[in-house]
Every structure is written in C-alpha cells, then in structure tokens.
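yo, Glucose-methanol-choline oxidoreductase is done. seq:
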Amino acid sequence: MAEAYDFVVVGGGSGGCTVAGRLSEDPKTSVALLDAGGRNDNWVVTTPFALVLMVAGNVNNWAFSTVPQKGLNGRIGYQPRGKGLGGSSAINAMVYIRGHRADYDQWASLGNAGWSFSDVLPYFKRAEDNADFGGEYHGKGGPLAVNKSRTGNPVQQIFLQAAQEAQFRLREDFNADEHEGLGIYQLTQRNGERCSAARAYIHPHMASRANLRVETHAHATRILFEGKRAVGVEYRQGKELKQIRARREVILSAGAFQTPHLLMLSGIGDSAELGKHGIATVHHSPGVGQNLQDHPDFVFGYMSDNPNFNGISLKALPRLLRAIRQYRRERRGPMTSNFAECGGFLKTRPDLDIPDIQLHFGMALADDHGRKRHRGTGFTCHVCLLRPKSRGSVSLGSADPFAPPLIDPNFFGDPDDLETMVAGFKTTRRLMETPALRALQKKEMFTEGVHSDDDIRKLLRERVDTVYHPVGSARMGVNDPMAVVDPKLKVYGVEGLRVVDASIMPTLIGGNTNAPTIMIGEKAADMIKAEMRAG
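structure:
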C-alpha cells in the first residue's frame, strides 16, 4: 500500500517550497514534497556567481527549447528552468521584484477576489526578511532573505551617473509605492549567499520536522484519480515507478511549463487534444496550457577594458582568484554578483500610467543566454517588454511523461509587442549613449549600424528571446471557460487538486516573477489552513 500524507506537493520550486514549508509548520499536518531534481544545497547553488554554470547548460536546469517562433524568423528559443529544490530560484539572478500594484488590482478586477495589491501585500511582507527597508511595504523576520548587493562594484555608481545623464529618475526601492526609475537591485541573498525558496522554506526543516518528507529525483508521471477526486501521485525514482497518496489534496507546483504538462498527462485538458495522444479525459478543461505569457527580451552587449567586468581572458583570471579568496573570507565581492546588479523600470511614452519596460544591467557580456562565448570582458543591458499582448501555449508532444512539453511563447505574435520593443530599444539606447556608459565601451557587439526603425525591427526578430518569466498556463479566473483554477487555486471540475505556482497568474506581472510566486505559495498555504480550521 502506498504511503499517505495529508498533502502531496509536486514540484519544489518557488511556489512548492513555500506552500510545503508553511503547511508543515503544523506538526499535525503531514506533507510530502516531490521534485525531479536534487537537493540543490551545494556551492554551485549557494554561490551567486556560479549561476553562470547553471543557466547556460543542464546543471540543475531542465534547459527546455521552444517550438520555432514565427515572430522571431522561425528561431527556436531557449527556456532554462530550475530543476531540483528551489526550482528556478536556485538558478536565477536573485532580483527581488514584486511588480506594480496595478498588476494585482487587474487580477482582482477580472473577478479574482482576494488578489488585489492590498490583499497580497501582507503575503509579500510575511515572506520577507528585508535587511535594508522597512515600513508599510516591507517585512522583517520572514524566511526569504532580501539584501542589497555586496559586490562593491564601482560600475554601479557609473550606472547611476548614466541614469542621471539620460534624465531618468533614480529609485532606491523598487518595491514601494512606485517603481519607475533606475537603480541597484535588491537580491534574495543572505550573507552573500543565494537564498533560494528551498533554503528559505525547506532545507532548515528537513531534519527537524518529522511530518515533512522530501523526495528528490522523483519525477511525477501522473496525478492519480478516483472518479473526479485526486488521491495521489505516481512518480519515477531511479528505475522504480512508485505511488504516494494524498488524504486531503494534491498540490501541483511544477511551474508554468510542467504544471499544464502534468495536468494533460493526467487527463485534464482539451479532450480532443488528449484523445490524439490516447489519454482518457478526467475533465475537459480547454484552458490548460493556453494563455502562456513571457517577457520578450533584447540584450545590448559591449566589450570593455574596465577591470570590474567579468569575462574570458587571462587578464580577468587574477581578479577571479582574488574574488574567490575574498568570498571565502568575508562573503563579499565579485563572487556575490548576480550579474544583473542594476536596472529598473521605464516608460517608453510619457503618457503611460505605469512603466512598460524593465532593464537588467549585467556585469558580463552574455550572448544567447551565455551559450555563445566571446574572448574578453564586457557588459550587457537587457530590455524587456513588461506586459506583452502576445499569448502562447504549452502542449503535449507525446503521452510520454519524460518527453518535454511543446513550448510556444509566441513572441511578437501580436504586432503591437514588436512596436513597443522598438520604443524600448530606443529608450535603452538613450541610456547606453550617455557619456558615463560610452566611456566603458570598447566595442558594440550586436547593435552597430542599427539606426532606422526597420533596422531595429530586423535586429529584434534576430535576437529577442525570453528573460525567464513564463506564467499563465493554468490561469485563475471566474466565469471564464478558459480558467483552470478558481481564486482559491482549486482546479475546476475535479476535487482535491490545487495549483500553486506562476501558471495561475491570469496576466503577467510587470517584473521578475520569483517573489510573486513565493507570495502565491504564502497565500495558498493561508487559504488551505483556513479551510482546515473551518473543517
């Protein structure tokens, strides 16, 4: 007989770790957490700089590809996703951003009661242990450490100088009342080490909580149903196919790609599509895998002789060795870099209510997600479109649970997105052409000779890809035939099944998605606890 727990959580990413950690605070509630990857508690994860070893390859990374993108000249895009405890929070650039209050108020205006900014702010604060900011917008003492950068990189000040030269406002806190402006990002780090969702919510309790079971290298293959009720999960661990039962609920937290994938493999999706793969329908839900949204991103890149940038060169080697020594000694310096140390939020038109683009200024030259290497040192500036109109999809390529899903972000599927990105390109170039940043540039890598709008459009189609924020593929909604979950995150049409991750977002928030996904986990745990108390 399979072992039974009150809750079985599938996926140890930002949502899954948070909800599992919070539910297991009550010793009378038993929780099992399954993840297909490893524990993610070694130096590769904890050392911020080592993200270069993960994002470009398959270390702790599913390293998915997209289907050919029509809007990008038929190119196949790259979609890194974290594998192992912490999920993408174990491999990301650690930028702590919540998005704009208008993003959450929009969710509420769509009928999702309890999801306005004033509703979700307490959960952001509950999660947070902010070393630098307090007041009505910030929390202290939560599991998730949030700190200012500890690199001490003098280029940060040059970036701020350039922002002033371009006449952009400076912003110290991007998570207060307004976030328009440029500045230095706060990071999910503690004492110069990465604070993933697993380090915040799971690792500290694995040995001490008898009611929390964590299974790694456990690849979920399907949700088990009795009639319309989810009663457990089948998973592969090594060569063994195992089952685990859920007395109360199965909680699906496998992320924007794998949550809809597992729902479809388990018989929840468009019945015609499921039938093509020989999968029996448990519940016809045509919205599963639809509504995928992601931030399209363009990268300006430059070679530079400034000694504070990273790269592949003999000159950079002594700096790297010094940095490693400093990091071992005091957990400060270049090894604490998240690369995207600076950035912010800008409007491409002054009449906009809220910023529509975000910048990430990187302390190394990254080409094709770091998969194409260049000799020498340099820097980058990413610009992404915050609220794209394009909608993509996640679908089944086969009924094999080990085959990756078909991922189609449909970048530039809506022509307005391309035009806004042209404006975003010009806005960002204004910053890159300031005297402060021109002085750092030895060679323009991707944008030389690009001047007319047509030149810019052509370049965008050639080089745009994700900035790693896919959401929306199991969206929350009310009186919406394409909604997959209700505002309590319960899957429509079945019982005992909830989704707790970024796939529930009805619309993409204007910013990095890790903090909002942790918020979703906090709120979900609170809703579940309230239901348990009500009995």
